[in-house]
Write a structure and sequence with these properties.
alpha+beta, 32% helix
């Protein structure tokens, strides 16, 4: 873990400067690593289908990225995570490509990687790019070796640093405590909605989606994002301050 039991940061662990859940920042990150320019992130301003605000999001949506504060995240996920068995999958037959996070404050980058490494978004990775090389190397590896691959990746560290410098607010230092958590919700190639979070013990399947149902469909929201927010509201302490972005292709409807 990046934090020690007393809440202080592990001095022996690598830390990144945290990035914002900001479409410009996350899009820059993926483009720097090597995705086609048409693949971009978009702000979700409302989850209410009657608001009309979802009409402005390109469809299909391949993935959602949610950021929540610690007081929301832990009540909603700690119990489920503690009951899970550590994931040990590897190879091309995995339903999803999942990475365990060992770099401190890198959960935004982890969420972006999970969003692009699975499902239709994977087709937008540029062949021969740093991202393409990273994902190809990761596929045959087990979770521990995959985590080490990311930990040692200079291309990932450079792209993250470039993206972190673009945020709307002043970026904290890599050694400042960070109380936010990122979660990716992805429609994978098996047609199921997967919750991918490098801070948990493994990937979590939230249920099957229909052929025409993307990661922002009503069924996907009912399987993933809404239950999370409901549990967080019931068990958390204080208001839920969260933001959501969607990964989709520009020019689609």
């Amino acid at each position: 873990m990046a934090e020690l039991p007393d809440g202080t940061l592990d001095p022996n662990r690598k830390f990144f400067v945290p990035i914002e859940n900001n479409p410009e920042v996350l899009t820059h990150l993926l483009h720097t690593l090597g995705t086609s320019p048409s693949l971009t992130f978009h702000d979700i301003y409302s989850l209410d289908p009657t608001s009309g605000l979802l009409d402005f999001i390109p469809r299909p949506v391949h993935a959602l990225i949610l950021i929540v504060p610690a007081h929301v995240y832990h009540p909603a996920r700690d119990g489920e995570d503690s009951a899970m068995q550590p994931y040990a999958g590897s190879g091309p037959d995995e339903p999803v490509l999942w990475f365990r996070q060992t770099i401190g404050h890198a959960c935004g980058t982890m969420a972006a990687l999970h969003a692009v490494a699975n499902g239709p978004a994977r087709a937008h990775v540029i062949p021969g790019s740093p991202l393409d090389a990273l994902l190809r190397q990761a596929v045959p590896l087990g979770p521990k070796a995959r985590a080490a691959l990311l930990y040692e990746s200079q291309a990932l560290e450079t792209a993250h640093a470039s993206a972190a410098a673009l945020g709307d607010s002043m970026a904290p230092s890599a050694r400042e405590p960070n109380g936010n958590h990122f979660i990716a919700l992805v429609k994978a190639g098996d047609g199921k909605l997967w919750e991918l979070n490098g801070g948990m013990k493994g990937p979590v399947c939230r249920g099957a989606l229909g052929e025409g149902e993307d990661a922002l469909s009503e069924r996907a929201l009912d399987l993933g994002l809404r239950p999370f927010l409901k549990v967080a509201e019931e068990m958390g302490d204080g208001e839920i301050g969260y933001s959501v972005v969607a990964l989709a292709e520009e020019g689609t409807t």
